[in-house]
Amino acid sequence: MNNHLRTALQLAAEGLPVLPLRKGKVPFANCPACLYTSCGGRPNMKTPGPCTCPAPCHGWAAATTDTSVITSPAWASAWQAAAAIAYHPGGAGLTVVDCDNADAIAWARETLPATRIVPTTRGEHWLYRGTMPSANDVRPGVDIKSTMAYARWLGPGTGTITALPEVVRTLTAKEPTPVRLAPQAGTLPAGGAGGECRHRTPTYLERGIAMAEQRITEARSGIHAEVYRTFLAVLSTHGRCGCLTEDHIARLLTAAQAKGETLRHCTDAWTNARTTLGL
Questions:
Q1: Rounded to 5 degrees, what are φ and ψ at 104?
Q2: For a disulfide at 118, which of 4, 52, 157, 198, Cβ 3.0-4.6 Å?
Q3: Residue 73: CB partners within 8 Å, gap ≥ 6?
Q4: What is the pTM of this model?
């Protein structure tokens, strides 16, 4: 019995659903039929239906405390080749706030209540008791791993696990969308008529644009998707109130192009985001 399997059995006995990870911190493709779909999908996908594939499943849905599955022939080669162990936080009634850099850690220390902290390669995992929907990039350098997600097992950490605070739950809450529809203008419509934001202060708008620029600039992968998601977030908050100007849009496009995006993709992403929101 190798060390990964031995540790996995110990964690399962403590009620932590586990699965093996191969090199690159990704799951083994146990069930290709459900890869990234109904069973083992990415965190931001819709809630899946019941898993009907043969055990073990794929991704987070493969995590289990059943020792007969963990030690089964189906996983024997996986444990031999495993580079790490992962667990399903939601399956254990937990939420992990994954702080991926020094700035994210500084934010957590200033904002979040004390709890158990596990050091990671580049940051820290803050563990709380309670579950919530998982989501990536809820703020720069911060992911939420709970339901429909897995986290690497990096040791027990230090501190006592405390209850999931409301400040963490609100990280995935959507901003209320203003109901006023503003006119379109220009070759790249800003989504409003310009001027002061009527439902927020100018300071709120400036902070929002600055955070959007930072979100694009700090994206490590999936730049196309990140640019679109950022445009969607900006428009959902300020796209109907007349506060966005061409200067604001130029700042976002400049940040996207600095990451290698073409002007064509930027304009398409902006148009698609407007269309999605009905602007």
A1: -65, -40
A2: 157
A3: none
A4: 0.61
